[in-house]
Design brief:
The protein contains no helices and six strands. It has strands at about 5-10, 15, 20, 30-35, 40-45, 45-50. A hairpin with a 7-residue loop joins β3 and β4.
């Protein structure tokens, strides 16, 4: 499954080391969890993060 649309959200300064796939945008059930390679992704300074459509694939 590929992402069909982009996802944009506000984010504090942080380092993301895991990603999770949920069945709902809030709450829901976690269906998959993945460790990001290396040291993860650092978001600094805080701000708006956009993940373009088609850049995340779950198989």
């Amino acid at each position: 499954m590929d992402t069909a649309s982009s996802a944009t959200f506000q984010c504090p300064a942080l380092t993301v080391t895991y990603v999770a796939l949920n069945t709902a945008s809030t709450g829901g059930t976690v269906t998959a969890v993945a460790l990001l390679p290396g040291s993860g992704i650092t978001i600094n300074p805080a701000g708006r993060v956009t993940i373009p459509a088609g850049t995340i694939t779950v198989s």
